[in-house]
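SEVERITY: medium
COMPONENT: batch folding queue
REPORTER: lab tech (J.R.)

DESCRIPTION
The queue accepted two submissions in a row. Attaching both inputs and their returned structure tokens so the on-call engineer can compare them side by side.

ATTACHMENT 1
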Amino acid sequence: MDNLHNNPTEKGESTQLNRRKFLLAGAGAGVAAASLLPHVSVQEGQASTEGTGVANTHQTTDLGKRRLGALGVSSIGIGVQNMHRKYDTTVPYRPEMVSILREAFDRGITFFDSAEAYGPFENERILGEAIKPFRDKVRITSKFGWNIDPDTGERGPGLNSRPERIKRAVEGSLKRLQTDHIDLLYQHRVDPQVPIEDVAGAVKDLMAEGKVLHWGLSEPGMQTIRRAHAVLPLTAIQNEYSMATRDPEKDVIPLCEELGIGFVPWWPLDCQLLTGWHDANTRFATGDFRAITPRFSPENLAHNIKLVDLIKNWAARKQAAPAQIALAWLMAQKPWIVPIPGTTVMAHMQENIGSTEVRFTSAEITELNAAVRAIDVRGQRLPDRVLAYSGVEAPLRR
């Protein structure tokens, strides 16, 4: 491990400096959110770690393994959503993004998350290039469902999950990912015009052809989950979930537990809020998605810093970085939760992986859970026009 990993205190201080520099350089333009450890098991007195490594020809770190339904993945994954464009609208250096993804694999990550809509298309191309040398040793995801022309990438209004469009979308994803199969395919958002049974039927056809191995839903309605699972068992649900966004605890996570479905939190660091480099005076430039998100308005951010302060206190207590506390907290909630933090910075990827080393005793996680839930996070997690696509129920078949 490098020096930062050998000294948790220095690592936390260095990371805060790196993130602050990133902010001052301009965390400018928005994310297209609408397109959007070893196994931690809290036991009495201490948290245990267990899992099996993924054999490969590289010298990789063993992060342990978790299961999303029947799919085995590393305890933490990585999202590639912003690798085609940063928050400040600048385009990252593509070879560096490829290097980050390959380094993530060398450090034990075997779960990589992408989507047709990211770019659109471009992030699948970046991921496909990065994992080509070790494709059979990792699990990759993609998503369909936005109204995107499969040939040109032109975005149309709303959603499109018609079976014929799903199949065309998957063919495009396979080509860009340079693979013959997608390990986990999600419907990116539920289409209110297409019965989920029709969607499942199209995915089942793709499974029969060997092009898709598992499937899931992102931000679906509860009854849609039940109906989809009854027709074609779901492997995972992907929803926004973090210390700041705890809505899934009310219904989605209990339903996943009931049905044996894995859970994948996106934005597990709440668009960088939980990394510790925001303060009450942080403001976001025009074009930054957070500038139009209620949670990040000046008045709400000033209140929500209470949660950031709590995380910082725990970071000092555990000699970790704030982001590591936020990610370790997620993994400590359920053994079948696998967060997928994204980044365009090598040091941040390494830091995120370090969250698997954070240990909570049963008393500590009880204390931390109580403290987190005592803080009322203010402000909607997404703008109205984006949030309107979440929790949608698919229509019944006529």
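ATTACHMENT 2
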Amino acid sequence: MATFDSQTVPLIEQAIALGETAPEDRIDDALDRHQGDALAVIREGIPQRLAIKAKQQLMLANEYLRYFKELQQQVPHASQCHQPELVADFRAQIKELNAYVDRLNTYPKLQNLGDAFPALMDMNINQARVNTLTSLFHRFRLCVLGDDTPALVEGLSGEKGDAIANAFISTFAAKQGVIPPTAPEYISENDTEDISQFSEIDEPGLIQEKPEQDYGTFDGPQTEATSEISQPISALKFSNKPLGDCIQQQAKLLAIQQSQELSLLNCQFNPTDMVALDDLNAFSHLDTLSLKGGTLTSLSNLNNKNLKTLMLNNMKVTDFKSKNLQLDSLLISQVNSNNWSSLLSLNAQTISIDNTVDCNQLKPLLRSEKLIPIHPGLSPTEMAERMQQAEANGIPLLMLECAI
């Protein structure tokens, strides 16, 4: 793992830096500047600039994939972390995003609004994907960290072996700033001498943290209002464990210690995780949030007015309702919900939903005056009129990939 981290952490840092969107490349702002004229936005040069960044991101992703594949090959087949399908998934996503870059190179040649609006939605969704791809797969290392350590005490059986294994996991996880997958049930005085040798283990090449740094606990709800004062992440208490784990892991990855240093959060949850976002109220500088997997129970208690981009992917959403958010963009892909109508209570300038969602479920949204829908079934003239209507009246745009 030390070798893997020394090879990949610089790539992750570069990918995160590249993922920062320049003000002139914010599509929503560009639409405002041009009063909803999608062709004028494209002629600003945004596709060309995004293509350059996307190519750089994919170069980093391909280099990361080489190390990622090597790490997978070293994982024992009996391990829960042996997941060769992840390599195939990584390759598939790189291939899809290479196709996106090819499309970006054609967009400057577009001549009509009927093609320009779908192009803007393509850029909105897939630039976010390309910016988070490498960080998403980097979370696999946490599985390896927790899974490999029991083999070191394979020769010991019974309670003593368990105690040493658990102590090693806890010591090593503390060095990594992550929560151990199994907590030590007990450590007897007789085991102290056997265990102490593990506390001296150090891993070169990993991001170092200050001594005795703790990345938070899970024994109380966070405050309801967004905190404008930067706090040590070690002092925060998380009420939702899946989200708290993600925050801790990203803080470690980015060597972040203060809450206001976190501007981007990328979380991938287990399918059974129930996720609430109240804990994010402590991170007032959070600008971009990407969530994948699990069930999002509610957005209503999230009070972060600086959050501008929210990406929801491959998850179930119980309720979209929120009166506290002021999003520029909500990007939805592979999301299931029985409450799509709650989107009407969400404050977002643009809501983009790709064709992985059953568009028949979205028909009630089309009848509301609170959203202005744009979809491929409209003529270029109709699209232009709706964009101008949205701009003139401050009504959110609902951009759909499927014709309804």
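NOTES FROM REPORTER
Confidence is low (pLDDT under 50) at residues 148-162, 164-226.
No errors were logged for either attachment.
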